[in-house]
Amino acid sequence: MRHSLNRIACLFLLVVVLAPIELRAQPNPNRLTIAAYNVEFFLDVFDDPYTFDEGHEPKPRAEIQSIAKAIRALNPDVITFEELENEGVLRAMNREFLADMGYEYLAVANTNSDRGQNLGVLSRRPIVSVTSHRWRELTLAGETQTWHFARDLWQVRIQATATQIVDLYSVHLKSKYDSPDDKESVKYRLAEATAARQIIAENMTKQPDQLAVMLGDFNDEPQSLTLKTLLAPQTDGKPFLIDAHAKLAPDTRITYLKEPYRSTIDYILVSPALVKMSIPNSARVLSDPSVLGGSDHAPISASFDLSRN
After folding, report:
1. Burial class for 28, CB neighbours closer than 10 Å (0-12, 13-18, 19+)
2. Radius of gyration of the chain measured on its C-alpha atoms
3. What is the DSSP code (8-state) at residue 254?
4. In a 10 Å sphere around its CB, with 0-12 CB exposed, 13-18 middle and 19+ buried, how is residue 235 labelled?
5. Which of 278, 264, 275 is nearest to 223 (CA)?
6. Element of type H or E holding 201
7. Using CB atoms within 10 A of its CB, is residue 65 exposed (0-12), middle (13-18) or buried (19+)?
8. pTM, whole model, 2 decimals?
9. Mind listing the pLDDT tens digit for each residue in 19-74?
10. In terms of Cα–Cα distance, which of 274, 196, 295 is closest to 33?
11. Residue 267, Cα to own-chain centre: how many angstroms?
């Protein structure tokens, strides 16, 4: 009988000791960490005759492992990607290297890129819908030329909590490479930024308290006309989008890692309603060299407490 009582007492003590640990391990349903990552020509081993990716090898396994390590280091609830070839490569990485991370929801968008530079998302929260704007005609005042998004403005709606939707506007704007039919790529990016602002503004007009984020690879620096266009106040003087990483020192927010072109070109821009929910000092640019071997970009993230009003 004494042995039985001792066993019961030990089990009781074990439950008392372990219970707080289990409670601390439970994820906070109101905390949402959002990330973006350009994974640099994440190609599979199959030669797609309709993808002009010659000159780029399939993504080595070691680089995929590095990308997965970087994702683990940030531990985002939702992460968008640029330069994915297809859904298969994202699904394979998630299955093999991130299976315990809870990314139950996955999507990849075919874009206007003919080089396998598509957009994707992994999420722990349900994906409600995805909307493409890839065929929207882009114009600039005073210019006769028209464009389409180099990749897309891809709107991904996330069921962040039982009652709250967060809209992610995922982008990979035109590179700085001047092609024969576009001698000034800066105009192309400006046309993309102008259209993106119009689309987001239209949605904010319908829903003034929209929880929205525009994120990804903008291929332009903080002082560029592209960013100034997106960050300019509304006509009434109120903020439109806010740079989540603006308070970081310039040398700590480098996102493009290749020498001699190291620069800040990846962003998370947040709507006024969502910026009120920002968790102080949560905006990060991952700088750990031990996990940055998978891409020429560093991933970025920011966290929000959705219980805040």
Report:
1. exposed
2. 22
3. -
4. exposed
5. 264
6. helix 185-206
7. middle
8. 0.88
9. 333 333 347 899 999 999 999 999 875 556 556 555 678 999 999 999 999 999 99
10. 274
11. 8
What is d(CA 119, CA 293) in angstroms, rounded to the nearest whole number?
A: 20
Q: Which two tokens stand for residue 227?
A: 């960013």
Q: Is 150 helix (H, G, I), strand (E, B) or coil?
A: coil
Tokens of 306: 């959705």
C-alpha–C-alpha distance, residues 37 and 16, integer Å: 41
Mean local confidence (pLDDT), 96-108: 98
pLDDT at 140 over 90: yes
Residue by residue, DSSP assigns 89-121 as HHHHHHHHHSTTTT--EEEEE--S-SSS-EEEE
Query: Where do we find the tokens 């005759």?
Result: 49
In one-letter notation, the amino acid at residue 229 is T
Q: How do residues 185-224 score in pLDDT, each as one tens digit?
A: 999 999 999 999 999 999 999 999 999 999 999 999 999 9
Tell me the C-alpha distance between 43 and 60, whole Å.
9
Task: Give residue-wise pLDDT tens across range 244-270.
Answer: 999 999 999 999 999 999 999 999 999
d(CA 269, CA 278) in angstroms, rounded, equals 12
Q: Check residue 159 and give its pLDDT.
A: 98
CA dist 82 and 278 (Å) reads: 24
Q: Rounded to whole angstroms, how far apart are CA atoms 284 and 278?
A: 12
Q: Coil, strand or helix: which one is 72?
A: helix
* Gap between the Cα atoms of 131 and 107, Å rounded: 12
